Amino acid sequence: MDASGIDIFEIYRRYCDIKSGHAYIGGEEGYRQDSDLQKAKVSREALTQLSKLVESRVTTGVTIFDELSMLMSRLNLRADFSEFSRFYDFVFFMCRENGQKNITVSRAVNAWKLVLAGRFSLLHPWCDFVEKNQRYNIFEDTWQQVLAFSGFTHDSLDAYDPEGAWPVLIDDFVEHVHRMLGSYYDNSNLHCNCDDPESQSWVFDDPLPGLTIFSGLKRKLPDDSSKSDDMDSNDMIFSNCKRSRAHDAEDLEDNPPGNTAYDCMETSRQNSPLCSSMSPCAVEGCLSKGFAGLLNLFLCVVW
Amino acid sequence: MSTQKKRALQIEAFRHRIVVDPKYAEKTWKVLEHAIHEIYNHNASGLSFEELYRNAYNMVLYKFGEKLYTGLVTTMTSHLKEISQSIESAQGEIFLEELNRKWVDHNKALQMIRDILMYMDRTFIPSNHKTPVHELGLNLWRDVVIHSSKTKARLLDTLLELVLRERNGEVINRGLMRNIIKMLMDLGLPVYQQDFEKHFLDVSANFYCRESQKFIESCDCGDYLKKAERRLNEEMERVSHYLDPRSESKITNVVEKEMIESHMHTLVHMENSGLVSMLVDDKYEDLQRMYNLFRRVSDGLTIVKDVMTSFVRDTGKQLIMDPERLRDPVDFVQRLLDLKDKYDRVITMSFNNDKTFQNALNSSFEYFINLNARSPEFISLFVDDKLRRGLKGVGEEDVEIVLDKVMMLFRYLQEKDVFEKYYKQHLAKRLLSGKTISDDAERSLIVKLKTECGYQFTSKLEGMFTDMKTSHDTMQGFYANLGTELGDGPMLSVQVLTTGSWPTQPSPPCNLPVEILGVCDKFRTYYLGTHNGRRLSWQTNMGTADLKATFGKGQKHELNVSTYQMCVLMLFNSAERLTCKEIEQATAIPMSDLRRCLQSLACVKGKNVLRKEPMSKDIAEDDAFFFNDKFTSKFFKVKIGTVVAQRESEPENLETRQRVEEDRKPQIEAAIVRIMKSRRTLDHNNIVAEVTKQLQSRFLPNPVVIKKRIESLIEREFLERDKVDRKLYRYLA
């Protein structure tokens, strides 16, 4: 078969077959020798063959990321996490070059920006950090753990456990973020102004979305957009929120009706902490402002 | 007829007694009462025991026990009241003597009365639940005499006054005190406790509270403790002389509390005389006294131990961090050993070999020795100094003592692998230069290291000794085999070093003199002929040479030089003048090494077999060198440029550190693989814990480094993460 004729969709189909152990060649051998070890070996060899096939393709001016982007738009990744997880692993597979088992930092960063957009609240700080600090290629385990980490940051980095078997690179990143958040929080004290009616209004407005139905939240989006202008002074983290919300807006329009209840529940759960911090006194004003900042992170992960 | 008479007599007698019952009881009691009076009045000698006993017996028998008992109480009480008044009227110090005398009389009387009334004691009293006669007598004495309003307070005051006088150094009548105290005890333990002991303890507490305050303000720590000890001993002695033994722990508790516990912190921290001063000045006797006294109070020894620990840590830390000390590693380590000896002596001589103190000392040393990352190097340098010359001529037993002390310090190191690296370097130099005083001493230390850290730790060190032995045999074989062919050529002695066992750095081969090359080639041929597949490379940077030289006026000397220096000197057999550059080209010795060589040969007074132009310490490439015809020395053998182990410069130290870190990575990986191979599946935290446990006898692995090694093993597909639990790893065969 002509290698140049293989497109990204066919490659993905074969990759899924190999991963699920249904590859026709591997399958036959697997049936003869039942051991899991043997199956794993066959699977690995099949992937190696597929990798060679991919690298032998003739490029036609379309980048790997263009192809992956096309593939993403065809797959129903939002509804099925296990499908997304497999696709995520496939992305790493496609980014490998020259028979290497790891991928360059630049490829990893571009891939993350493409694939984890809207799913990883700290995506841009993470990519910046990796670009500046990582001197080695990204290998597969780290790649996979970033996906786990992106899910982990739904709640809070406070629960992050440095002894929790995360890769060293992620440990370093979390430490970096803590330092940044610390300095931001210190700065916010200097600018606290509880007498500002606009500020107070902003605080009071936030709990409302948590009390409305999902469709109500949609109607609030224009207000959020106008408020984001007031937040230009926010640092990188909060800029990231703005961009993420844009993605959310797009995705919401495509969301099947069946997921409405789930998303609504997510929204309610994540908004409830703020409702308990209503007092507008000076000290709690600071706390509320800081916490409200964190809340925006929560909102970003709703999809 | 006689039978009839007997019966009549018996009947008559019975009827007769019944008739006189009321009269009989009263009359009989009068007799007994009178007798009691006589007894108390010291006129008992005229009484008939048999008559009195029979009278009492009959009264009980004829159911007049109650009258007898009541009468006894009344009569005794009456007498004791008289006695009490007599005692109360005694003046001054006579009081106690009078009390004692009356008590003795009362006891005698009581003894007689009890004997007379013994039948009542045995029958009537138990049946009617009355108090036995003797006990009754004691109770009445207590209630009527001792507890009378005047006597009670006066007795206590008198007793306490006498105790106070004795405490102030007076001699008192201890026998009298003993008797009075015994009286109180005889009256019952509660009487002793309530009437005397309780008050005695309270008064004592006040006394010692005031005294300790006075002492603490006027004495230094050592004197105070002497006084406290003396007071304790005095109180124990007082108890043994005239108090009840059960009071000892109570009174010593009072002294301990008031004189020791209340002032523990003040004493320990006293300026110029407290615990720290005692430790500094080796006041073993004072320290022992402090230990013995503080042991008596709760937390006392804890305070002593904590202060000692804190002081040892500070002292050790100062020693460890003193820049001046760091210049001389041997002195540095010797001071550590002296410090340990000092405190071992304190613990042995003064602290009763207390295990908690030994542990505290050990943890202190471990704490401060590891504060200085250079400690492993310095300990190795100390060993080097001892094994080169320090222990020369010392008996085998003393050698063992020194080595054991070194092992003690070694045990405190947390980075034993750093020590191993330095030790290997220093050992290599000792072995190759033939400078070690004793192979036995060297091997003895290696056995100790193996015992401590396992075979793997010392296997390469043992390999070094094996190489030395093998080399010796090889050279013997070489000369036995080829001796005749070598003729008058130079003598060669080769050490064949196993790669990996020795801390060699690859050195570029220099150009050996032609005279040497011949015999070297012969050795190579011989060696490779008997060891198939081997590969030899010469380490010319580690050798030595002995040269015979003749100077200008015909004086001859034997020069002991390094191999490099030999290569340089041999050039002057055929050249008058050579520049540094020319020498480098001729010998191919690296410039940095060459400069050091030339400095030793030309710039050291008394050893300058070469002359240099211009005359300066520094060596430039175009400096010129000449054979020094004017060289003179009073020694026939001249030793030039001896290689001695020295402390590393900072960059060298850093480099060694980095090599240690690099060496740790494969060890950590090997540990991970061993663990996972046996467990197949294990979670992250347990891997970290197990790896740390396996390696801590050599060094404490950094958890971040362990994590990186795990990542590397995952990348190389030795391990994988569990699909479900990301913290769980699986071993891949």
Task: Provide structural commentary.
The complex is a heterodimer of chains A (303) and B (733). Chain A is mainly alpha-helical and 303 residues long. Chain A has a domain at 8-24 and 35-186: Recoverin, domain 1. Chain A contains 15 helices and two strands. Chain A has a two-stranded antiparallel sheet. In chain A, helix 5 runs antiparallel to helix 6 (105-115), helix 5 (81-95) packs antiparallel against helix 8 and helix 6 (105-115) packs antiparallel against helix 7 (123-133). Chain B is mainly α and 733 residues long. Among the domains of chain B are: 23-145, Cullin Repeats (5 helical Cullin repeat like, Up-down Bundle), CATH 1.20.1310; 149-298, Up-down Bundle (5 helical Cullin repeat like), CATH 1.20.1310.10; 468-530, no CATH class; 544-639, 2-Layer Sandwich (Ribosomal Protein S5, domain 2); 653-731, Arc Repressor Mutant, subunit A (Orthogonal Bundle). In chain B, the strands form three sheets. Chain B has a three-stranded mixed beta sheet. In chain B, strands 3-5-4 form a three-stranded antiparallel beta sheet. In chain B, strands 7-9-8 form a three-stranded antiparallel beta sheet. The termini of chain B are far apart. At the A-B interface, helix 8 of A face helix 30 and helix 31 of B. Chain A: This is Defective in cullin neddylation protein. Chain A: GO terms for molecular function: cullin family protein binding; ubiquitin conjugating enzyme binding; ubiquitin-like protein binding. Chain A: Neddylation of cullins play an essential role in the regulation of SCF-type complexes activity. Chain A: One of its GO terms (biological process) is protein neddylation. Chain A: InterPro entries: DCN-prot, DCN1-like_PONY, PONY_dom.
